[in-house]
Specification:
Blueprint: E1 2-8, H1 12-22, E2 29-35, H2 43-46, E3 53-58, H3 66-76, E4 80-83, E5 88-89, H4 92-95, E6 108-114, E7 120-121, E8 128-131, H5 132-137, H6 153-159, E9 163-173, H7 205-208, E10 220-222
Parallel strand pairs: 1-2, 1-4, 2-3, 6-9
Antiparallel strand pairs: 3-10, 4-8, 5-9, 6-7
Length: 224
């Protein structure tokens, strides 16, 4: 079984695109979706999900809470997990290329990435195929970084030598010029007030050391 783990934040059209693809999947896939306090909830869309799904909703709308959302998703995911962002689609063709027996449970794999026209693009720095056990053995995401953009490098450092790459399959990156709500539209990124470079504590000692704090430091509920 492979569990797709993603955070959702006001991406109804992009989520529907995932469901279109999931309907073609072979057996052996399920999903854990975390609605991260959206104004446009995921629940109405996922009521018709073609693969087994769990939906959790964060009950506050905290900017850039993706670290917390992943921790929540991985609390209830099972076995091998594909952690990615809503704007990254695993097509039916690529899903059929994933053979778990080809991978080692003590490693986390970064897959290839392509654009919708099929052209190659650099690997996504925050997409991984890994087991739930490995995720938690390295501490999960540090929720002190919630509320800030550009914090995924800390988790990669926690993985250390367990991080590697695979060319066996690729995810497709969708930009807003293709699907208007493919990614977060309402929050600033680099250069904005949310960029982690503005936080001297997180870009200093804690970024390079320290342990992740206790996960799930926010209210949430299960919806499906």
């Amino acid at each position: 079984m492979i569990t797709i783990v993603m955070a959702y934040y006001n991406n109804p059209t992009m989520l529907e695109r995932h469901l279109e693809e999931w309907e073609k999947y072979p057996d052996g896939f399920q999903a854990v979706i975390v609605d991260d306090g959206s104004e446009e909830p995921a629940l109405p869309i996922l009521k018709n999900c073609p693969i087994p799904v769990q939906l959790y909703r964060v009950l506050i709308d905290k900017p850039w809470n993706q670290n917390g959302a992943r921790n929540l998703g991985m609390t209830y995911a099972e076995g091998w997990c594909l952690l990615t962002d809503m704007d990254h689609l695993l097509t039916n063709e690529e899903a059929r290329k994933i053979k778990i027996e080809d991978y080692h449970s003590n490693l986390a794999y970064k897959p290839l990435r392509v654009l919708p026209d099929g052209s190659e693009y650099k690997r996504h720095p925050n997409t991984y195929l890994m087991t739930k056990d490995l995720y938690w053995s390295c501490g999960g995401y540090d929720e002190d970084f919630c509320g800030w953009y550009g914090t995924d490098a800390t988790f990669r450092r926690q993985l250390g030598k367990a991080l590697t790459e695979t060319d066996n399959f690729a995810l497709t990156l969708y930009g807003r010029e293709v699907i208007h709500d493919a990614n977060t539209r309402t929050l600033g990124r680099k250069g904005s007030e949310y960029h982690v470079s503005n936080n001297n504590v997180l870009t200093g000692k804690k970024k390079y050391g320290g342990e992740p704090v206790k996960p799930l430091q926010f209210p949430w509920t299960r919806q499906i």
